[in-house]
Amino acid sequence: DAGYETIRVEQRGRVGWITLDRPEALNALNTQTMREVVAAAEAFDVDEGTGAIVVTGSEKAFAAGADIKEMEQKSGLDMVLTDHFGAWARFAAVRTPVIAAVSGYALGGGCELALMCDVILASDRARFGQPEVQLGVIPGMGGTQRLVRALGYYKAAEIVLTGRMIDAAEAERAGLVSRVVAAADLLDEAESVARTIAEKPLPALYAAKAALDVALESTLAEGVRFERQAFAALFDTADQKEGMAAFREKRAPSFTHR
Ligand code: CAA
Known about the structure:
Bound molecules: acetoacetyl-coenzyme A
Low-confidence stretches: none
Shape: globular
Helix content: 40-55%
Strand content: 15-25%
Order of helices and strands: EEHEEHHHEEHEEHHEHEHHHH
Distance between the termini: 28 Å
Number of helices: 12
């Protein structure tokens, strides 16, 4: 496991698995865990043999937030000088599609980690929330920004300002999750979704994720321009030729991820 202590990492076919593993702290994300998750995700990201990454926790907790005990005594200056949470930007910048498989608590930084993923599969026991105001702080891993973009202002504001938890059904209605599945099926479903994605041509996956990301960050005109360029670039890939030939010849494609 490359010496990881707070996560478990496994490659299954073209899918990379990252499992948060600090059961004694409900998978709270301390600095070590952040570094390990980011390192594991970046290692999968530069591996051509990986077409999708799954991030998951336990049935009881995806992650109950950033580690409160680690942060409690820090000053504002400490947070700036150590760039506390800064490494998460590298997780969000991973080009490979990332699926969050969420059961139990996804609170604070745990909810924000899920929001950095591309697909959020939730078990019917998942509970999401941004309880930071109760601690005298606010979300610090992108929650205020990504929740507003994902849910709209009023739903996001109510969640952030009250700090209340929402269950999987409410999260699905709010558009915070891609899909809800029975808790017992969560990992199988995550495996299935991840494999479905990972089998697709890697250049198309990178381009699709990059274009989807631009949608959250740019004007419509800029986004459409980006999309058209990314679309055009894919016509110089072997997998585009193979995918379209296979369609014409009425056979299954055989992709090389090139
Ligand atoms: N940080 C550090 N330790 C945590 C933790 C966290 N975020 N969440 C849980 N733990 C620890 C508990 O302290 C406890 O440890 P001890 O046994 O040593 O006391 C252990 O995990 C089990 O937790 P509980 O006994 O509290 O379990 P519970 O089932 O009674 O309650 C819970 C579960 C409601 C999730 C509760 O643990 C809780 O409220 N946790 C904190 C949630 C929170 O506020 N998260 C936001 C953190 S701030 C943040 O994330 C900033 C950001 O924007 C990035």
